[in-house]
Amino acid sequence: MRIGFIGGGVMGEAIIRGILSKGITPSRDIFVSDINTQKCDSLKKKYDISIAQNNQELLNNSDTIILAIKPQTLTEAVSPLKGRLSSRQLVLSIIAGVTIKSLAEELNHDLIVRIMPNTPAQIGEGMSVWTTSKKVSQEQMATTRNILNTLGKEIYVKDEKFLDMATAVSGSGPAYILLIIESFIDAAVHIGFSRDIAKTLVLQTMLGTVKLACESDIHIAELRNMVTSPGGTTAEGLFKLEEGGIRAIISNATIATLEKAKSLGQTK
Ligand SMILES: NC(=O)c1ccc[n+]([C@@H]2O[C@H](COP(=O)([O-])OP(=O)(O)OC[C@H]3O[C@@H](n4cnc5c(N)ncnc54)[C@H](OP(=O)(O)O)[C@@H]3O)[C@@H](O)[C@H]2O)c1
After folding, report:
1. How many distinct structural domains can be found in the chain?
2. Do 190 and 232 fall into the same domain?
């Protein structure tokens, strides 16, 4: 299978790495077109993939085309391709906020998969949520699933509204979690730990807690109760988090991200 990438940035490279690590297709059958020639050179050097001189050349060499460009460069990148895709070429888009309908119009093509991946895909621990246009076949869905499995977990959803919702949770989620990690490290430094030790304590606590929650059948709230002795130290800390409105803050952030994702979809 020949897979072509329009855009070889952070996410494009993560998908290339995933595909090669699981041997989905040989490196010579991966094509990249990126206006940034330095990125092309670096990708060729690192992964020995093929470079297309432009997006039209990429189209001629690909069975599956992955759009991994920023939303603001979409029209410029794909307008020369409008009406030029064959009835068998599948388009996978990871562009945030761009609906299947608008992509289908931009390309005059009806085999489209819309995906919301996230950055942990760079280490094979990503979360991708995806849906397809009506005409995408079972075989093409299996191809998509194969590619996404190389990036971590994937969930297919029937209704496209879940893509905007996933943007607000798994898409933007890594940024929320990183902000929490950063704040927690700063707090540990504030009470006297060196930055190195603070980072180790916080990251291992995050990692261990997430693994515990994943591997346990016990409800999340019950797991938390188990570390909260009556009148104890943890109860004191939790009270301060609740007093600061942590639940409402996280909910408000998620709702605001969802609204932004929906508005991006409307303007495209
Ligand atoms: N990063 C995330 O967390 C994340 C998560 C989910 C979804 N996404 C989506 O993934 C997409 C890609 O994000 P990214 O972080 O990988 O972006 P990125 O690192 O900026 O990569 C995009 C690449 O496309 C190139 N490009 C621009 N115009 C082009 C054109 N006309 N033809 C070919 N290449 C072109 C860019 O070159 P220049 O640098 O020279 O502009 C850049 O190398 C975005 O739409 C984003 O919404 C990202």
Report:
1. 2
2. yes
Taking only the tens place, the pLDDT of each residue in 151-179 is: 999 999 999 999 999 999 999 999 999 99
**Candidate of 5, 34, 66, 176 to mutate for ligand 1, largest count of ligand atoms within 8 Å of Cβ:** 34
Residue that the structure tokens 């969802």 belong to: 258
Query: Same domain, yes or no, for 196 and 240?
Result: yes
Q: How far apart are CA 14 and CA 7, in angstroms?
A: 12
pLDDT at 264: 81
- CB of residue 222 inside a 6 A radius of ligand 1: no
Nearest CA to ligand 1 atom 3: 119
Residue 213 lies in a domain: yes
Q: Which of 201, 184, 189 is nearest to 241 (CA)?
A: 184
**3-state SS assignment for residue 132:** strand
Residue type, 7: G
Ligand 1 centroid, distance to 72 Cα (angstroms): 9
Please tell me the pTM assigned to this model. Answer: 0.93
Rounded Cα–Cα distance for residues 111 and 154 (Å):
19
Q: Is the CB of 40 under 6 A from ligand 1?
A: no
Nearest to 85 by CA among 53, 61, 49, 114: 61
